[in-house]
Write a structure and sequence with these properties.
3-stranded antiparallel β-sheet, mainly alpha, globular
Length: 161
Amino acid sequence: VYTPTMVKAKIDLNKLDKDAVAEGGECMAYNLKKATRAVQNLFDRAYKSIGLEGTQYTVLANIFVSEPITLSKLAELMSVDRTTLGRNLKPLEKKGFIEIKPGDDRRAKLISITDYGKQILSQALPVWKETHEQIRNLLGIEKWGSIVANLKELTKKLNER
């Protein structure tokens, strides 16, 4: 828990500038999270009839393309913490979309998509395409391409640090 005694220098709270704080509306993290939530909500609504969540589609798609894949490799591929990914895999395994087995090294876990998971993925793919098309139409193809390219570049540069 943060306490005021942790502040080493005395700060004059009367000099706290509301305009400077309001600039937080231009914050990259804030705006990315806000956009992510809006996009995620759109995908969650689109996948609801299939019994899938937007994040689950992405995980299933990555497993399908790369299977069998270790938990560590999948976490690296998706830029997600292993522990978080492990929690996200449990519902997919419980629904029968994936199976997790020990690898050659008993510490490694190999993840594969089941036939049922492939059926769900084949139902979800057209929904994914249609939802992307909705977003593309809202933004226009030029802005769409620019946003995607900029996000990929930002991710690459931040991961290189």
